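fwd from M.: "can u put these together and see what the complex looks like"

so here's what she sent:
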Amino acid sequence: MTSFPKEELNRVVRLPERGHYDKDEIYPIVDSAILCHVAFQIDGQPHVIPTLHARDGDTLLLHGSSASRMVRHAAAGHPLSVAVTQMDGIVLARTAFNHSINYRSAVLYGTARLVEDPTEKNRALELFMEKLIPQRWYDARPPNAQELKATGLLRMAITSASGKVRTGSANDHDEDLELPGWAGVVPARMMYGDPVDAPTLKPGIPAPGYVRDWVKKLNS
Amino acid sequence: MTSFPKEELNRVVRLPERGHYDKDEIYPIVDSAILCHVAFQIDGQPHVIPTLHARDGDTLLLHGSSASRMVRHAAAGHPLSVAVTQMDGIVLARTAFNHSINYRSAVLYGTARLVEDPTEKNRALELFMEKLIPQRWYDARPPNAQELKATGLLRMAITSASGKVRTGSANDHDEDLELPGWAGVVPARMMYGDPVDAPTLKPGIPAPGYVRDWVKKLNS
């Protein structure tokens, strides 16, 4: 399956022409960000929290603490919704109404299970870190039994999803193009700075090349 | 009331020492971002979508389309949860377990009502735009009746909230400080570029000073 069926659950209701259902469109948005927002509902009250994610095929790995409300609730098999959003710019139109945001967003649906087997968990954490910061896993002390236990790792099967994308400049109607005001875009993006040594770092340990390469790639 | 009572709903469960309940701590996080994520639940399925927000005292203005699933559902008085998250850096520790993110996040709870009276709606949209892009409202054509109708503006009373903040560098335990690996932080932030003219812009209309000032302030 290369795209998600468009159904009531994942249908882009507003501005459907901006909607995407192909994995080729949705997954790059998911992979472009480190942070996602996970929504879940407990006793009639929705919650949404930010967390780290990494995608493994049609599965989303969600990181948390074993003690967290989200991890405990999701592990019980309740449905989740996960949003990944990148803001690319702020669009200023000649008309108040046509002001907008350039963005790439993905919303994923599914249920998750907690990765509990220590071997599977260790492998999943390795994959998770490898997706986030390539090569880092092999340069850090692996989790010990206690740390492994304190880490909550969820595998959410992505059963439905949609993407929504806006690009381009101000879209005023023809009759508004003669208005005297300025129109255009203020570009926006996440920028990552040079690695800053921890105050506790022993002298003579430079930031590794793979960290510098990763920062360069994040900024490219 | 200067802080939100800590209760089951808004309690920071994991790493409670990072939790904040004072409005003085939470509201600056809310105000620092343009985008939020709104969670709501329809027929047992949580949804989460990104949208624009602006705060008016203890009220959160949420922008959408009158046609959107979120606006229609929220307008019916169902409970919402809204997250505002700023990522400030990626923390690389000597141990896999202590890798982390520097962030400021706020989670707000409440129910909303749709602003329907045209005069109130126009005033709320003015306030909304004034918070987002100061002075812009007065430089753009105001919404006409049809545009006003197509815009969905929600006022959510913030009845509960919490903030969560991590700052600083890698926090490895003493016994891990002798490990040979590098540790530190890769700073992260949203950066806004110079205004880019719309292709349809007539010659001789420069980006206004208040737009350039606003971009400078966003980057400061």
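replying to her w this: The longest strand of chain B covers residues 80-92.
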